[in-house]
Amino acid sequence: MSKWEEKQVRPVLPLYLAALAWPLASLVFPPYTLVNLALAAACSAAVYAAARHFCPMRVVRTLVPYATGSEDVDALLGGIDQNLEALHKLNDAIPDQQLSRALDRMEKAGRGIAAVVENEPDKARQIDRFARYYLPEVVKLMGAYVELEKNGVRGENAARIVAELRANAETTAAAFENQLDALYSAEALELSTDIEVLDSILKSQNLTK
Least packed by Cβ within 10 Å: which of 3, 33, 126, 183? Predict the structure, then answer.
């Protein structure tokens, strides 16, 4: 569940144009009589209406903070949101479709996990390692992969790294989904070592610090 809230905002340009139209209309219809005053007001109103027609409402995204009643849980969920946003942006830069689909699954599961914990803050302890280690680790590894692609690294080693990342990303996506499923049961789930496997792939090639 994303905490980005979208709301429509009315542009201020029509008001400025209407305000500007009033003195201009007063030059044509000096407001010394009630009739001229009404005509100037009508011109200003017409300009405002025309400007609103050509200046549609715009959508503004604002970050809504969590309010679960626990500062620790709110901070945990906020960190998940930040990492999911980072993962989404990295996914846009990943050309490999199979890997991109795996990241889509991770993001979807991650947002589902955040939604469950927001509604049931007592379950936050079940996702502590997911939020503080596994999800940030995936973001770090995918960032290294994007840099690999950006720098045009090719060759046998690069091909092997990509293949291993792709294979383990599928397993990691399944682990994230299992973590989400576990939140609906009475049993807590410990994620497997799949992300440690991903970490070792890049560390062996000096791609992480």
Answer: 33
